[in-house]
Amino acid sequence: MLSNGLQVYLILAALLLAAGVYGLVQKRSFIGMLISIELILNGAGLNCMAFNRFCSPDPAIGQVLTLFIMGIAAAEAAIGVGFILAVYKRFRTIDPTRIFILKQ
Amino acid sequence: MSEYRIIAEVVFYLLIVLTVAGAVLAVTARILIHAVVGLAVTFLGVAGFYVYLGSPFLSMMQILIYAGAITIVLVFGTMIGYTPRQIVETKIRDKNLRLALPACLVSGVVLCSAVVTAGLGTMRQSGDTGIADIGKRLLYEFSLAFELISLLLLIAMVGAMVIVGGQEERDAE
Question: What is the distance between the alpha carbons of residues B149 and A68, in angstroms, rounded to a whole number?
Answer without folding.
Answer: 7
